[in-house]
Amino acid sequence: GAVVSQHPSRVICKSGTSVKIECRSLDFQATTMFWYRQFPKQSLMLMATSNEGSKATYEQGVEKDKFLINHASLTLSTLTVTSAHPEDSSFYICSADDSPYTDTQYFGPGTRLTVL
Amino acid sequence: GNSVTQMEGPVTLSEEAFLTINCTYTATGYPSLFWYVQYPGEGLQLLLKATKADDKGSNKGFEATYRKETTSFHLEKGSVQVSDSAVYFCALSTPPKAAGNKLTFGGGTRVLVKP
């Protein structure tokens, strides 16, 4: 149980285009979803927290107009990288929290974004 | 604020050796503590957790004990295998739902087990 999927697993795009990454909780309803960014050989950096039906809460320094997050349902959150540039190339990982009463997050397998 | 410090890697071991990865934390209140493992090219998997002082989390031969007096949560395994090669992250969560259950991660420790 508690499986989180991400799609696509890898994406390569040209500079200036937008890329959408989906995060789904497959067998549970996610009260909260989180988006992280991970640079090579580094730790995870929390970008934003989203709850279904409300606006995402972004961490300090994260551009909300560049990284659009939509949490359309209790099982789906999307991250759109708008007007991507090579410096946006990274590994993006989502996680989901299955209950407001527990503190365990379940992580997706990640999406490798490469911007040419 | 909350922070997690873990030993830098890489840690290179021979198969069947004993593994210890140190992790210490600073936090307000009484956080839950976690160890996550990341295999090459994959997302994170929860390895084990402990929610209160003196709790011991264990899974797949790994274990860690929540030590409030030393603010530590060191990860240990008595006999590692090649398949344990991965990056290990120590993490804590803020007091229940205080901030959306955000996780604070350590920097990660890369472990390489050689046959």
Description:
The complex is a heterodimer of chains A (116) and B (115). Chain A is mostly beta strands and 116 residues long. Chain A is 0% helix and 53% strand. In chain A, the strands form two sheets. In chain A, strands 2, 4, 5, 6, 9, 10 and 11 form a seven-stranded mixed beta sheet that branches. Chain A has a four-stranded antiparallel beta sheet with strand order 1-3-8-7, with no helix packed on it. In chain A, β7 (67-73) and β8 form a beta hairpin. The termini of chain A are far apart. In chain A, 36% of the residues are buried. The mean pLDDT of chain A is 91. Helix content of chain B is 0%, strand content 50%. In chain B, β7 (56-59) and β8 (62-65) form a beta hairpin.
List the helices and strands and how they pair.
The complex is a heterodimer of chains A (116) and B (115).
Chain A: E1 4-7, E2 10-13, E3 19-25, E4 32-38, E5 44-51, E6 57-58, E7 67-73, E8 76-81, E9 90-97, E10 105-107, E11 111-115
Parallel strand pairs in A: 2-11
Antiparallel strand pairs in A: 1-3, 3-8, 4-5, 4-9, 5-6, 7-8, 9-10, 9-11
Chain B: E1 3-6, E2 11-14, E3 19-21, E4 23-26, E5 32-38, E6 44-50, E7 56-59, E8 62-65, E9 75-77, E10 86-93, E11 103-105, E12 109-114
Parallel strand pairs in B: 2-12
Antiparallel strand pairs in B: 1-4, 3-9, 5-6, 5-10, 7-8, 8-9, 10-11, 10-12
Descriptive terms for the model:
heterodimer; A: 116 residues; mainly beta; 7-stranded mixed β-sheet; 4-stranded antiparallel β-sheet; globular; B: 115 residues; 6-stranded mixed β-sheet; 0% helix
Instruction: Please write the string of helix (H) and strand (E) elements of chain A.
Output: EEEEEEEEEEE
Q: Uncertain runs of chain A with pLDDT below 50, 5 residues or more?
A: none
Number of E strands of chain A: 11
Element-by-element helix/strand order of chain B: EEEEEEEEEEEE
If you average the pLDDT of chain B, what whole number results? 91
Largest sheet of chain A: 7 strands, mixed
Q: Based on CA inertia axes, which overall geometry of chain A fits?
A: globular
* Multimeric status of the protein: heterodimer
Estimate percent helicity of chain B. under 10%
Distance between the termini of chain A: 37 Å
Greatest interface and its participating residue counts: A-B, 26 and 24 residues
Q: What is the beta-strand fraction of chain B?
A: over 45%
